[in-house]
Amino acid sequence: MQASIVTELDLAPTSKRQIITAAFASILGFALDLFDLYLLPYVAPVIGKLFFPSESPTLSLAAAYASFAVSVLMRPIGSALFGYYGDRNGRKAAMFVAFVGVGISTAAFGFLPTIAQAGEVATIIFLLLRLVQGVFVGGLVASTHTIAIETVPPSWRGSMSGLIGGGSTAVGALFASIVFWINSLFLSWRRL
């Protein structure tokens, strides 16, 4: 005899609008995470020069890539922390806090002093900010995925997970390319 477990989520009716909103929020949340990673190849040479200068350009570039790896390593910790927070305070609250945290920590990079301005402190602050950003990104991915997958009927959960993973990848890459292109145009225009 097989016992079936019925949860509140399986019983709660979900409107099409709620499903579309959850899918959009999840795709956007994961796309913003991937935006950071897809932007890396464009900006790593500059980050290497500003925060990890070295006699060897290759070492500077490697250090820039390693600094992004620090953020990726913190994501499982963020997922666990925000998963716990979401279980206690609701998924929407976890998603909101993570989304704001990602936004603030990402924007803070624009205000960092470079190594030429602040010395080694700039590199330390940069790395600490990457750690913080990694925790929030892990929380964002965990909360948005969970909301979207819990919103759809059980028969659509695999499709939703695939849509989030695949759709977000394309949107994140597109965002990174567009932002870099616009900045390149603006910076080349200012040089004229």
Output the keywords:
192 residues, mainly alpha, Growth Hormone, Chain: A, elongated
Account of the protein in words:
- The chain has about 190 residues and is mainly α.
- The protein has a single domain, classed as Growth Hormone, Chain: A.
- It is built from 7 helices and no strands.
- α4 runs antiparallel to α6.
- The longest helix has about 35 residues.
- It is elongated.
- The N and C termini lie far apart (about 75 Å).
- The model has no long low-confidence stretch (mean pLDDT about 85).
Question: Would you kindly provide a brief summary of this structure?
Answer:
The chain has 192 residues and is mainly α.
Number of strands: 0
Count of folded domains = 1
Radius of gyration: 20 Å
By secondary-structure content and strand pairing, the structural class works out as mainly alpha
Task: Give the overall shape, derived from the CA principal axes.
Answer: elongated
CATH architecture: Up-down Bundle
Catalogue the unreliable spans.
Answer: none
Helix content: over 70%
* CATH class annotation: Mainly Alpha
Annotate the secondary structure layout.
Layout: H1 8-11, H2 16-51, H3 57-89, H4 91-108, H5 115-118, H6 120-151, H7 157-191
